[in-house]
# Entry
Amino acid sequence: MNIPRNWRLQQQRYRLEGEVCEKCGARIFPARDICPECEAPAKTPLVFSGKGEVYSYTTVHTPPQGFEEFAPYILALIQLEEGPLITAQLTDVDADHVDIGMPVEMVTRKVQGGGAEGPIVYGYKFRPVLHATVHAAPHE
Amino acid sequence: MSDTTTILRPEHPVGIVGYGAYVPRYRLPAREVSRVWTGGYGGTPIKEKSVPGPDEDVVTMSIEAARNALARAALPDPALIRAVWVGSESHPYAVKPTSTIVAEAIGATPHTQAADWEFACKAGTEALQAAIGFIGSGMARYALAIGMDTAQARPGDALEYTAGAGGAAYLLGPAEESLAVFEGSFSYVTDTPDFWRRAYQHYPSHGGRFTGQPAYFKHITAAARGLMDALGTSPADYTYVVLHQPNAKFPKSAAKKLGFTPEQVKDGLLVNEIGNVYAGSSLIGLAAVLDEARPGDRLLLVSYGSGAGSDAFSLRVTEAIVERQGRAPLTREYVARRVEIDYATYVRFTGKLRK
Ligand SMILES: [Zn+2]
# Structure
């Protein structure tokens, strides 16, 4: 457990805050202050929509230390609608209901429970889209 | 007793700009509790209750409800919110606010108030009433009040059938931007020892049958009557009434005693499907009713918290409701998102059993 590191990453983890490159328009997650497309400095914060789809996934039965209480869980690569590919847990879904290409949305959940005495770490996970009518509407 | 000096009404009119519900997807049928503890004998007070998933707590549930409220409000910038107040009796930390985490996650920090409220099942409406005052006095333009719980009950206790998880968030703001406007509110509070939890105890204790007549019924009816008397309204003026719902019987019978019909009660009654969600109970009932309401409808909301007290609110729905209802998941969508679990899974999910 690393309190300063978790605290520094809160904006990124709680609400999917990344960056946008003012030069070429690339949307960057996680933030790295340099555009991976054009190598220009990119420091303008951007909150991602949280919409995306499952690119690939696997079930984790033997989790790393600190994640035991949630195992088994599904770890997925999510293609965000803004472009970046990120690794995140899926939640509120069973493995046999997950498909490649399944539309998902970001939720903020407990990522590490912290045991009885430690701090709880919250962060993004993804789940199948709940409210079909809103997301069926055209968006940028 | 109730007149214009006891009714609570702000200087500037205040209303609900956005609202949002949350219910976890897991359900524990009451017959499962009965199977384990009474061999299946005896009636059950509700059909089933909602149970949080292993990665959910009052923080994560409040964040989702708050995001739904903000989606309905379509606020240009969450940094305009001057207060994030969360009422609950199941805050995940004993010391460290739930509200700062919620405020950070929705982008309201750092120029905002944040606080956790406690008053058993009426902690949420306490926050709502404070938000009315905060905005109505001109100190703030927007404030967020949340009632959310993951209620705990001692294994085998009568409350284990009903102690559920869920709640709702309300973004309050000026009346002219609101989908429903507060006409007034009224509180009724006494020192009544019906239900409590001492420090360091995991599960609450209660006075059994004492929780009915001198506690729930007395406070709910006194607050509702006090408000209606002061406003000069009667049950026939309301399209919907939403009361705190600890079980299926109490709110129906209190509503009847007050002169409301079953028709006025039914849309806001969720306890049979999600259980008693404590600080979220009356507030999520209100969210379900707002999902259905039409412009001009009048709503009466009355909470109840043990210890004890009730807050009553009269609301009038505006034209703005029509386009905002569909901007976020409806309360009934969360209720319908249902995965049944057995008692053993419930015990693991709620931390009653650890490896
Ligand atoms: Zn670039």
Notes: The longest helix of chain B spans residues 212-231. Chain B has twelve helices and 14 strands.
